[in-house]
Amino acid sequence: MARSDTRLHIALIAFILLTIMFSVFAFLFYRQASDNMARADSAEDQALAAKQAMGVAMNEANFVRAMLGESELGMEAVMSTYVPEGAMLTLKTQFDQDMQELGEGLPEGELNYPAIARHLVGKIKEANEQQIAVNAQTATTLQEQADQVTASKAAEDRANTELESAKAAYATEVAKHEEDRKQLTAQIDNLDKEKLKLSKEKEDISQLAVETEERLQADIERLDNQIENVSTELVKITRPNFEVPDGKIVSVNQKTGRVWLNLGSADGLRRQTSFSVYPSDTIGVGDPDDLKVKVKAGIVVTEVLGKHFAVARITDPKIANPIHTGDIIYSPIFHPGRTIHVAISGVIDLNGDGRSDLDLVQNLIKSSGGKVDVVLREDGTTVGDGITTKTRFLVVGDEPEIVSGGGGTSYIEAYSSLETEAKRNGALKIKVDDLLNFMGWSSEVRIVSLGKGGSPAADSAGALEAPARGDDGSAF
Q1: Does 16 share its domain with 35?
Q2: Residue 285's pLDDT is what?
Q3: Is residue 315, in this structure, part of any structural domain at all?
Q4: Residues 346 and 321 reside in one and the same domain
Q5: Which residues contact residue 366 at a Cβ distance below 8 angstroms, ignoring those fewer than 6 apart?
Q6: In this structure, is residue 224 part of a structural domain?
Q7: Distances in Å between the alpha carbon of 435 and those of 176, 231, 442?
Q8: What share of the chain is helix, strand, coil (3-state, %, to 5)?
Q9: Where are the beta strands (DSSP E) in 413-463?
């Protein structure tokens, strides 16, 4: 029993010792493992730090190589993944400043220190070459200036020599001028005396000229008065006598508006000749104011039927005062067997539309057998042979207006000149309206009779009830 307990105690002690030993070994092993794990973590951190340091070192190396132009990536690619710090940032700032100051003219991809060095070397060589050229040019310029100075000195010497010669010549000329001045002074004194004499003669001549001018002016006024008196008498002598009729009405057809005249081809009558018609007992039709009272109508010849026979169309008839057989007809432009000459001047506008009717008046005069000797056109020019002693009338329109600023002076001068010529040659001045009234002309619209017994054929000259004619074609 005692041995069993001893063995048990020994076994227990052994177990306890083994347990203690195992615990010690376990503790020692765990401690070793913890130390190894700590060393492993430290080694891993150191490896990571070393890797990061290696990356920074590589970026810095690439940055430095880019500054030195040795990097294949280029500065822009390097800076896209690298942000410099500390000394590298200072280096980058200096690099940028150097590139800005020294890299002008270089492409963006060549901005590095070796390229800058090559660029500066090229600039220095170029500057040296330019300096050499400038030095050569300066030397040439200095030589040219030296040559010019030499030439100027020679020219100055020649100029001084010429100046001395000129001074001597000037002294000679001064002496000669002084002698000439004395002679001229004597001549001036003589001329002054002659001038006084001529002034006295001029005063005498001027007085004589004034007296002569006054005498001539008096003679001119006297002659002008004589010319005026002669012109007045000439106008009285040549003034047409409107109291003698040019013809008379031998038959009337009131229905067709036609009349027959005792004028024809032997009298020089033409178609389109116009007359004014007056009562058979009319005496004196020369006053234009009486035309409105005495005139019955106007007529226009439509056809010449014989030597002393023609038919005419009535224009502007008066129902209360119709035309009768035996009424007399007048026209200042027509005279049996004779051509009436006229001149035309002034502004002619018959209907007030602002347009010239000068051509219309000319055509009316020509169609009535008259002849236009001269006409003053609107532009101030005259057309024709001028006014002569054959010219019976100066037909005038409105007087030209004097425009401020001198415009239209040529027309006014021509207008006045024609009036002077008309007065000098005894032509009667007559207004265009009075002339047309004497001629019996009026602006009208042709009317064709279409009433009972009327037809276009009946509207032609002499179509209805022409009066009987004699063997010579004249009207009874």
Answers
A1: yes
A2: 57
A3: yes
A4: no
A5: 372
A6: no
A7: 86, 21, 11
A8: 55, 15, 30
A9: 428-431
Boundary-marking domain end, from 54, 76, 102? 102
> Which distant-in-sequence residues (6+ apart) come within 8 Å of 309 by Cβ?
250, 260, 261, 262, 263, 264, 469, 473, 474, 475
User: Which domain, by its residues, includes 7?
Assistant: 2-102
Contact 364, 441 (CB under 8 A): yes
Q: How far is the C-alpha of 127 from the C-alpha of 265, rounded, in Å?
A: 116
Q: Coil, strand or helix: which one is 70?
A: coil
pLDDT of residue 388: 92
Question: Do 92 and 38 sit in the same domain of this protein?
Answer: yes
Beta pairing, strands 341-345 & 371-376: parallel
Tokens of 195: 């001038």
From the CB of residue 15, how many other CB atoms can be counted at a distance below 10 Å?
10
The stretches in the chain having pLDDT less than 50 are 238-242, 404-407, 445-464, 476
Let me know if residue 201 belongs to a domain: no
Note whether 337 and 430 are same-domain residues. Answer: yes
Closest by alpha carbon to 414, among 360, 331, 344?
Answer: 344
92 and 6 in a common domain = yes
Tokens of 193: 């005396």
Same domain for 408 and 339? yes
What is the pTM (predicted TM-score) of this model?
0.45
What pLDDT, on a 0 to 100 scale, did the predictor assign at position 233?
A: 62
Sorted by sequence, the CB contacts under 8 Å of residue 373 that are 6+ apart come out as 341, 342, 343, 384, 385, 386, 387, 388, 390, 391
Q: Tell me what pLDDT residue 257 has.
A: 92
Specify the CATH number for the domain of residue 360.
3.40.50.10190
- How many domains, in total, are found in the chain? 3
**Token pair for residue 54?**
């290696």
Query: Which of 102, 128, 149 lies at the terminal end of a domain, its last residue?
Result: 102
CA angle 34, 39, 43 (to 5 degrees): 150
What per-residue confidence (pLDDT) applies to 242? 46
